[in-house]
Specification:
6 helices; mainly alpha; two-stranded antiparallel sheet
């Protein structure tokens, strides 16, 4: 016991207090035991990943978009473009709808009845593919003569309204328009010339 106490005091005097951190020279058969944690052992990567993932989930942001470790090491194989589209279609679109609804309820009524506010997302690049999918049926319907010039210009191309001049259907030359009276046996007049679309005036 006295030997152990003497060794303890000798070690404390050489490597404690102001001598802390001084190098020690020991025999080759001495066993060294670490009594504290190094920085790597104090890192706890799983706890860090858990905190990062919870913060991103609460904000609705994919972790990889902000360069967090939990997102970079994710096994999900997707491009950054796909992550941006997902973030825009889910988180941002939901917030835009919520803000627009709040502004409509609280502000629009001061400027008149029946006014609704919404965000203009026509220039949001991440939503362009979704917009193309949405207007594809209208574009096909226009090519088949089922949608007016007004609807195609305004809803598909985002152009200005032409007024009454746009209230026409451009029917392909391969399709002959039949008036309802012709279906009852009445004669048909005004058939289109071969090779030219037949504009049919319609009302809005």
């Amino acid at each position: 016991m006295e030997t152990a106490t003497r060794l303890k005091l000798a070690y404390a005097s050489q490597f404690g207090g102001e001598q802390r951190g001084m190098p020690a020279i020991v025999d080759g058969d001495t066993e060294v035991t670490t009594l504290s944690f190094n920085l790597r052992e104090l890192e706890f990567p799983d706890l860090r990943d858990q905190s990062e993932s919870r913060i991103c989930a609460a904000a609705g942001v994919p972790a990889v978009m902000v360069g967090l470790h939990v997102g970079v090491k994710s096994d999900i194989r997707a491009t950054l473009k796909e992550y941006r589209e997902y973030f825009t279609e889910t988180t941002l679109s939901a917030k835009w709808r919520a803000y627009a609804a709040a502004l409509t309820d609280q502000l629009a009524s001061e400027f008149g009845e029946g006014i609704r506010l919404r965000f203009d997302t026509s220039q949001v690049r991440a939503l362009q593919e979704q917009r193309r999918d949405e207007v594809a049926p209208l574009a096909e319907a226009f090519a088949r003569g089922a949608v007016t010039v007004y609807e195609y210009r305004v809803r598909v191309l985002g152009l200005d309204d032409l007024g009454p001049a746009g209230d026409v259907l451009l029917v392909p030359s391969t399709v002959a328009p039949v008036a309802p009276a012709a279906l009852r046996g009445a004669p048909v007049s005004g058939a289109p010339a071969d090779g030219a679309p037949a504009p049919l005036p319609v009302g809005r």
